[in-house]
Amino acid sequence: MHDQITPYQSDATKKEQVRNMFDNIAPKYDLLNRMLSLGIDQYWRRSALKKLRQYQPGHVLDVACGTGDFSIAALKYGVHEVTAVDLSAEMLSKGRVKVHSKGLESKIKMVQGDSEALAFPDDTFDAATVAFGVRNFEHLEAGLRDIRRVLKPGAPLLILEFSRPKVFPVKQLFQFYFRTICPLVGRLVSGDGKAYTYLYESVQAFPERELMADILQQQGYRSVQWRTYTFGICALYIGEK
What interhelical angle do 182-190 and 14-25 show, nearest 10? Predict the structure, then answer.
């Protein structure tokens, strides 16, 4: 079911629609991220990067990298080099401006690519990350398999993704905020309200917590673990090749 949730009502594939959506919202993406998450996403990213640092990876693959915030932050946690991949040319364009402004071109390479058909040899990377992008895979399992293929034996995949809180009143507030406020603010700021309606719908359909852990195990990942943050709004998944 999660693979069937798309941003727009069109005959285009989910992959094409997701690429078009991020091309559309790229100019306002970072601003909306900070506004809609109230800045809490920075805490989630730092928590994931602290876990990543425990593996002491040299070369990291950042899938669905967006404008590169996670890739840039990874360098502060002991990572030496990042290959950052995204479907959207416009998101990558914004990311390259950031990387250039920080003088990090020698450490971060931004490449347009597809999580299901990564253009890298087997056993290439010391770790892989996906921060709030795995919901957008057209075929979740295929993407997870191809990421595993390019990881070195024993290397980890870390996934940050939205989760649905279970406790009152956080559950009710979360539903209202994601279903009503996010599309309204998204439409006003970016001009594309459907992108933020898709955010709510894709979170609702995504297999979370134990289900996501099971999917990772089915795709060959070992030592799978997960935890949630901020009353269950965000989840971190870790699995090793």
Answer: 60
Average pLDDT of the chain is 93
- Mean pLDDT along residues 32-58: 89
Instruction: Output the CATH code of domain 2-240.
Output: 3.40.50.150
Domain limits, the chain: 2-240
Q: What is the pLDDT of residue 1?
A: 64
Nearest CA to 86 among 58, 53, 110? 110
If 0-12 CB within 10 Å is exposed, 13-18 middle and 19+ buried, where does residue 188 land? exposed
- 192 φ/ψ sector (left φ>0, alpha ψ -120 to 50, else beta): beta
Greater model confidence, 1 or 93: 93
Q: 237 pairs with which residues across the strands?
A: 159, 226
Per-residue pLDDT of 139-181, as tens digits, reads 999 999 999 999 999 999 999 999 999 989 989 998 888 888 8
Predicted local confidence at residue 185, as pLDDT:
81
pTM: 0.94
75-81: long-range pairs with CB below 8 Å, 24+: 75/104, 75/107, 75/108, 76/49, 77/49, 77/50, 77/52, 77/53, 78/53, 79/52, 79/127, 80/107, 81/107, 81/108, 81/109
As given in the structure block, the two tokens for residue 75 are 């360098």
Is the per-residue pLDDT at 57 higher than 90? Answer: yes
SS in 3 state form for 87-154? Answer: CCHHHHHHHHHHHHHCCCCCCEEEEECCCCCCCCCCCCECEEEEECCHHHCCCHHHHHHHHHHHECCC
Instruction: Determine how β-strand 59-63 pairs with β-strand 81-86.
Output: parallel
